[in-house]
């Protein structure tokens, strides 16, 4: 999707890509955070990502961290592997505070706890008209059959103490 920016010559319009959404903002901040925690400069991260078969110059890392270069799915996976984290560690804030909101592209603000539960395959972020059905469908589709939880977490809006365990 494109949006109209300031007019230029010719057609009178200049098209630009969408700005980063909340998930893109988390990625750019987390790449910097994890890279610095490892004591690496941008050149070192670029070298490691390139060694994984995803060529990325130091300038590319700088642009990702500045928010001027978008990260596609293949970049995200390579960055996560190079940094020694899972993709969720790049997509979400580095906290799990039930009270603090965080933005998730396509959903808006949710609690950090809800975002991490979703990323961990424990519950959906959007429930629709039937929260129990949405929860069950999520649990069935979010992971392959051999990786699904054996104990079903409580559905939203239910009393966890009254939930029967399987």
UniProtKB/TrEMBL annotation:
Name of protein: Helix-turn-helix transcriptional regulator
Domain of life: Bacteria
Organism from which the protein derives: Streptomyces boncukensis
Region Disordered: start-end pairs: 1-25, 143-166
SUPFAM superfamilies, per database record: lambda repressor-like DNA-binding domains
Domain HTH cro/C1-type: 61-90
GO molecular function, one term: DNA binding
